[in-house]
Sequence to fold (611 residues):
Amino acid sequence: MNEKASILIVDDDESMCETLLDILEDKGYGVVIARDGTKAVAEAGSRHFDLALIDIMMPGMNGVETLQGIKKADPGTTTMIMTGHSALEGMVSDALKAGVDGVLDKPFEIAAIVEMIESKAETRAGPPLIDLKKYRVQPEALHLIPEETARKYDVIPLRIEGDSLVVAMSQPENLYILDDIQARTRMRVKPLRAALMDVRGAINLHYRALSEVENEIELLASADVARVPASRILDLLIDGAVKDGASDIHIEPQQDRLRIRYRIDGHLHDRLSLPLNVHTPLLSRLKILAKMDITERRRPQDGQFTISTKGRKVDLRAATANTPRGEVAVLRVLDKSISVMELPELGFLSDSLKTYQKLLQSPSGMILVSGPTGSGKTTTLYASIKQLNTEERNIVTIEDPIEYQFDNVKQIQVNPQIDLTFASGLRVIYRLDPDVILVGEVRDAETAKAVTQAALSGSLVLSSVHTNNATGALFRLIDLGVEPFLVSSAVTGVINQRLVRRVCPHCSSLREAPEEERLVYEEEMGEARTQFYYGAGCKFCAHTGYLGRTGVFEMLVVSGEIKRMLIGGASGKEIKDQAVKEGMATLQHAGMQKVKEGLTTLHEVLRNVFY
Ligand SMILES: [Zn+2]
Fold:
């Protein structure tokens, strides 16, 4: 459908009508205003509206009666009512009985209404049919909807995009299903339309693979494991790691058992106990695959190999080392099917994302991504490159290491043995006429000066700095010998980020939070709240209570005033205060916002963002 949806607004509040009219017309919707129920029903009888937005409390014909009138005049209209404090409880249930498609509670933010209207209007217009076979199913997404629900509604989850879940379904216009999935997963649902047979086929394929792995791993835990070949055990450990989204597998002999642990979202978890007599055959198998010396048990070794499992290629880097209890092995899992994320998937607050995307559009200047090790800086840089990677831009990178290979991007690997460093690599890059330059990290004076120069001479430069806050990144460049006035004219923005674990939607429930944590929330958000979402642990989240991670971002824009302050020798605190005055959401605020929305826990935010 090319034409945008038509919307009927029914409200006696003039300013409300005007505001909505302005915004929605701006977005290309056809909008008609009716100031009372009688006029609204007449409008609905004279032409078709895709969506009617009805105030519940109006003089004369009230919202419920208006709703019934509109439904009668045109059953094809999606209806939403707006309620407020003054609305009587019974009216909302009457509206629900009358078949209203959505309820908006007043007071609300205009932005929230518009978003809701857009999602309803788009659902109405109906997403186009996709060819499901061309879509990949992300294991993390699959965990979000249990098989039973997927079969009941004929939906298959495809991927997580930030706080949204993209699903393919045969009836994307069924609001009941969308609302139910939204309520169960506590994520916004973005539906794509797919043929029913394709959806059922995908459910069979993906959920079966999931439960097969789980069943076989459970069998391993039983007494018969000694009869299972070592090669099969190793395959299963790798399948299980891919299924759980683990980054590492630890194989560790203990006094009475062989302990198997997975690292998931940065934390180690016990996965399985095997009898000790499996230890030697398992390590021998591993050493053969990784082309290590199988007779060597004392000296540490490392190697790598690739296996195909469940239709995907998985690269593994293996390392062994001797301990008093015997040889331990650690396998790093590099799942090749994992693609580079899109910027909206990373977890930016929507205003910060808009600001960042605007900065990315400028042809020159430098954007720095800061944060401690393991805070997701590379993921952000890669998502940025993905967004910038169009035909008209020449993108060149110098990285250590190259973690993902882009099409049409010239990527150079740092190599100290041939004297190829970030700084010397930059000199090579200049000769390649770049529009965009990615420099993995700024950590020495030579690189700092070279990137500043590049940003001032007409390239857009992206890089990362290992500092704990955004202003710290600016001062790091100054510490590395770049003049403050050059820093202030080169750097256009600094991102500061952390990763927090996401609450598992399958086992989460509201619980009382410890008082000291609540007080920090209250202080930051200016509102009291005692109950927060926590995961109890279930089979979907490997009994951790958490499933996947999301980023927390602070986006500092180097404004005219901040440039002046930087040259004038202002402190980091003063610059930060100015940025907040100019509308920056701090890292702490962005983190607490995720707690507020039930995406993560107070504990995670306090541990990763506050301290
Ligand atoms: Zn769970």
The longest strand covers residues 491-503. The chain has 22 helices and 23 strands. The chain has four domains: 6-125, 132-211, 221-335, 343-499+549-583. Residues 474 and 487 are 7 Å apart (CA to CA).
